C-alpha cells in the first residue's frame, strides 16, 4: 500500500512518540500529564542531569494515554524550572509533536558528570536528586561523599582497618547492609560509617542501591569472590 506523501510525515511522527510511550516510564523517560509546578519539574530535570540524562513527555498520562498539552504555558513553565529552579541552570531541548490531533511536548536534557545539579524540595531547600528506574530520589550524604571522592584529583586513599574488614566480611555473608546496621556491627558513629562506605563506593568495591523505600549497600558485582569465611572464621561466627 502506497502512503500519500502529505500523510507520510504525520505517520512517522506518531510512530516515534508511540514507540517511546510503549517503553513506559524508566530511568531515561518520564511522563507528565501537565505542569502545574515548575519546582516539581525542576526536580525531574535535575534527577536526569545527575544521572544519565533523559526525556520528559508532557501531555502524556502515567498510563501512557495521550492527553496533549493545554497551551504554550507548558513550555514557559519548563523554561522557568530549568533557569530559576535548577542550580546551575539546565540547558534543555524541546520539540512539539502532533499525535492524533494532540500536541505532545518532548523535553530532553543531557547528563554532565562534572556538574552536580540542585533543585528545591517541598520546603524550598536546595537538594540533589538522582534518577533511579522511574523515580526521582533524593541523594543522601554517602552518595555525595562518594561522588566527591571519585572526582578528587588525588584519588582515594583507603586504610584497611577493622571497620572495612567487618563491613566486607558481613556483606560477603549477608548480601546487603544499611547504614545504621553498619554503625552497629562496627561500633562506629554515623560519620565514620559514611566515610568508609563512600571510600569503598568510590573505589568500586561497594555499590549503593537507592530505592523509594530507603537505601542499602552491597558488594559490587565481581568483587570479593575469595573465601572470606575461611580467612576470617571468627568474624563470621558473630553474624
Describe this structure in words.
It is elongated and about 65 Å long. The protein has a 4-stranded mixed β-sheet, sandwiched between helices. It has a 3-stranded antiparallel β-sheet with strand order 9-11-10. The protein has a two-stranded antiparallel ribbon with strand order 5-6. Helix content is 41%, strand content 21%. It is built from 9 helices and 11 strands. The chain is an alpha+beta fold and 239 residues long. The termini are far apart. The chain folds into 2 domains: 5-138, Methyltransferase, Cobalt-precorrin-4 Transmethylase, Domain 2; 141-238, Winged helix-like DNA-binding domain superfamily/Winged helix DNA-binding domain (Arc Repressor Mutant, subunit A, Orthogonal Bundle), CATH 1.10.10.10. α2 (38-49) packs across α3 (73-84) and α6 (179-186) crosses α7.
What's a concise summary of this model?
The chain has 239 residues and is an alpha+beta fold.
Indicate the percent of residues in helices: 40-55%
Domain count, please report it.
Answer: 2
Secondary structural class: alpha+beta
Q: Which architecture of the largest domain would the CATH scheme give at its second level?
A: 2-Layer Sandwich
Tally of strands: 11
The CATH superfamily title of the largest domain: Schlafen, AAA domain
Mean pLDDT comes to 86
pLDDT < 50 stretches: 1-12, 225-229, 235-239
The number of helices is: 9
Question: SSE layout and pairings?
Answer:
Elements: H1 5-23, E1 29-32, H2 38-49, E2 54-58, H3 73-84, E3 93-99, E4 102-109, E5 119-120, E6 126-127, E7 129-132, E8 135-138, H4 141-151, H5 162-174, E9 176-177, H6 179-186, H7 190-202, E10 206-211, E11 214-219, H8 228-231, H9 233-238
Parallel strand pairs: 1-2
Antiparallel strand pairs: 2-4, 3-4, 5-6, 7-8, 9-11, 10-11
Helix pairs in contact: 2-3, 4-7, 6-7
Amino acid at each position: 500500500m502506497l502512503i500519500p506523501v502529505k500523510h507520510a510525515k504525520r505517520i512517522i511522527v506518531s510512530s516515534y512518540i508511540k514507540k517511546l510511550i510503549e517503553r513506559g516510564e524508566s530511568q531515561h523517560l518520564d511522563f507528565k500529564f501537565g505542569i502545574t509546578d515548575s519546582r516539581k519539574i525542576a526536580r525531574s530535570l535535575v534527577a536526569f542531569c545527575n544521572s544519565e540524562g533523559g526525556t520528559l513527555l508532557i501531555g502524556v498520562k502515567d498510563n501512557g494515554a495521550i492527553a496533549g498539552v493545554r497551551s504554550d504555558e507548558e513550555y514557559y513553565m519548563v523554561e522557568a524550572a530549568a533557569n530559576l529552579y535548577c542550580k546551575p541552570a539546565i540547558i534543555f531541548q524541546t520539540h512539539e509533536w502532533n499525535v492524533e490531533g494532540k500536541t505532545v511536548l518532548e523535553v530532553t536534557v543531557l547528563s554532565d558528570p562534572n556538574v552536580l545539579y540542585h533543585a528545591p524540595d517541598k520546603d524550598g531547600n536546595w537538594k540533589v536528586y538522582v534518577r533511579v528506574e522511574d523515580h526521582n530520589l533524593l541523594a543522601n550524604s554517602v552518595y555525595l561523599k562518594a561522588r566527591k571522592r571519585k572526582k578528587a584529583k588525588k584519588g582515594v586513599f583507603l586504610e584497611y582497618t577493622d571497620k572495612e574488614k567487618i563491613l566486607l566480611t558481613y556483606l560477603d555473608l549477608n548480601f546487603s547492609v544499611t547504614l545504621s546496621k553498619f554503625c552497629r556491627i562496627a561500633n562506629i558513629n554515623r560519620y565514620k560509617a559514611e566515610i568508609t562506605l563512600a571510600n569503598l563506593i568510590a573505589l568500586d568495591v561497594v555499590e549503593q542501591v537507592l530505592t523509594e523505600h530507603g537505601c542499602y549497600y552491597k558488594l559490587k558485582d565481581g568483587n570479593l569472590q575469595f573465601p572470606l569465611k575461611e580467612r576470617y572464621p571468627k568474624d563470621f561466627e558473630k553474624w
